[in-house]
Amino acid sequence: MIKHTDSYYADSAPITDEYPALEDNIECDICIIGGGFSGLSSAIHLAEKGFKVVVLESAQIGFGATGRNGGQIVNSYSRDVADIEKRYDPKTATALCNMIFEGGDIIRHLIEKYNINCDIKQGGLFTAFNQKQLDGLYEHAKNWQRYGNNQLSMLNKNELVDAVGTNAYVGGLLDKSAGHMHPLKLALGEAKAVTQLGGRIFEQSAAVRIEKGTNPIAHTERGSVKAKYLVLAGNAYLGGLAPKISNKAVPCGTQIVTTEALNAEQLKTVLTSDYCVEDCNYLLDYYRLTADKRLLFGGGVVYGARDPNNIEQFLRPKIEKVFPQLAGINIDYKWTGNFLLTYSRMPQFGRFDDNIYYLQGYSGHGVTCTHLAGKLLAEVLTGDAERFDAFASLKHPAFPGGRHLQIPFSAIGAVYYNIRDKLSI
Ligand SMILES: Cc1cc2nc3c(=O)[nH]c(=O)nc-3n(C[C@H](O)[C@H](O)[C@H](O)COP(=O)(O)OP(=O)(O)OC[C@H]3O[C@@H](n4cnc5c(N)ncnc54)[C@H](O)[C@@H]3O)c2cc1C
Questions:
Q1: How much distance in Å is there from the Cα of 32 to the middle of ligand 1?
Q2: Is the pTM of this model over 0.90?
Q3: Mutual orientation of helices 102-113 and 37-48 as an angle, nearest 10°?
Q4: Ligand 1 within 6 A of CB of 322
Q5: Distance (Å, whole) CA 342 – CA 347
Q6: Atom from ligand 1 closest to the CA of residue 67
Q7: Ligand 1 atom closest to Cα of residue 64
Q8: DSSP assignment of 304-325, as one string?
Q9: Torsion angle, CA of 329/65/164/128, rounded to 10 degrees?
Q10: Which ligand 1 atom sits nearest the alpha carbon of residue 62?
């Protein structure tokens, strides 16, 4: 049995062995491979439209990035508006930018509609280490305002000292429409919603082979699901199931630690705003308080999804640099998880053979976009392909050097960006 990685989330979420393994040959309208946010949002939106859905999860619901992430509800994609407008034709760019804030709204809507308790909090900060990064945030705010976000405000150094409890930054951008939550609790609540809507979920049921055809079949070790459509939502954990899409993106690891609960004295300064924070470095650090007042701190990227030898040794100096007042604090949990990076850093959605769809490649920021992805999939499968196709039309070149050279190439990229962050160029 493949269980959740040891983490703060796995220890604090109401995990039950609720979903059986697939032991039969069954049929449905849509078979979704992957029980993370992409798969669950797809299942909910499709089931709400009356489709019979089946979710196959190779481990437990939320086993992948979904149940391990920073819990930050960050608007947008991993490329910002200015980049998108520069890179794509005006019609596509406008369509993409018009959807930038929708994923966060979907999350809040699902939480309310299905009564999901996942410790949700409002407000997210982007923080700048230098003037160049701060200028970028002003630009960013102006661009987001053009697409309708009126919940933004710039904070100066002193305001950040009050809100975050650190002198590390010269300023920041507050997005009140962002926020944070316990991602595994959210995923488990979404899974429950899928079953309430008549969908079926199977855990410990990896799809090991796909049989293409008019009605494609996902085979597991001990069963199969025949469907009108298959949806590949395994993201960085999909492995080689669909070689057609796997050389267009590279799995990357990122690490998180969670401290012991902060004491009353520490809570007088650290994150009194209860906002989540993400800094502006390319290889960024991100952190927030949990509901039981621990500091949950993530950072760094290991290209090729290899685990660093000592996560605590890697992240402790970063924590103590931002919060010297937490020097020596106990780290209770540490874990790592994989996200999927595309060359363009835009999500990779599409279809092949007319009846196999895929949703992947959020490149580090996927909590909101996975939720959008499921909604767009439901739109396309009910006859409205326009918004899905804005994403599906994006070109995703293979990583230079091909599949076998992806990791060395990307590792060189990591060194480059690390130097770039240090020199603040
Ligand atoms: C450590 C970490 C921190 C992050 N922090 C943030 C953050 O704070 N904010 C943010 O916006 N984004 C964050 N991200 C990114 C975000 O978590 C992901 O983009 C998002 O969760 C992807 O969801 P997914 O459903 O596409 O993939 P996953 O959550 O990885 O789910 C894929 C699922 O598919 C299953 N699977 C794979 N292959 C098969 C198969 N053959 N058969 C059956 N099942 C299969 C896997 O077991 C897995 O459960 C973070 C990522 C990581 C790793």
A1: 14
A2: yes
A3: 70
A4: no
A5: 7
A6: 29
A7: 30
A8: TSPPPS-HHHHHHHHHHHH-GG
A9: 120
A10: 49
Residue 425 has pLDDT above 50, yes or no: no
Check pLDDT > 90 for residue 176.
yes
Ligand 1 atom having least distance to the Cα of 255: 1
Q: Which amino acid is at 206?
A: A
Residue pair 167/182 in contact (Cβ under 8 Å)? The answer is no
| CATH class in words for 8-407 | alpha beta
Mutational pocket test of ligand 1: of 107, 286, 339, 342, the residue with most ligand atoms within 8 Å of the beta carbon: 339
- What is the pLDDT, as a whole number, of residue 411? 53
**Mean pLDDT score across all residues of the chain:** 93
3-state secondary structure 150-208: CCEEEEEHHHHHHHHCCCCCCEEEEEEEEEECCHHHHHHHHHHHHHHCCCEEECCCCCC
At residue 247, the pLDDT reads 82
For 345-367, what is each residue's pLDDT tens digit?
A: 999 999 999 999 999 999 999 99
* Structure confidence at residue 403 (pLDDT): 47
Indicate left, alpha or beta for 316 from its phi (over 0: left) and psi (-120 to 50: alpha). alpha
80-97 burial: b if 16+ Cβ within 10 Å, else e: bbebbbeebeeebbebbb
| 93 Cα: distance to centroid of ligand 1 (angstroms) | 25
Q: For 58-114, how does the pLDDT look when each residue is reduced to its tens digit (9 = 90+)?
A: 999 999 999 999 999 999 898 999 999 999 999 999 999 999 999 999 999 999 999
Q: For the chain, which residues make up each domain, given as ranges? A: 8-407
Question: Could you tell me which of 258, 392, 279, 407 has the C-alpha nearest to residue 333?
Answer: 258
Rounded to the nearest whole angstrom, what is the distance from the C-alpha of residue 364 to the centroid of ligand 1? Answer: 9
pLDDT tier at 303, thresholds 50, 70, 90: low
Bridge partner residues of 342 (DSSP): 249
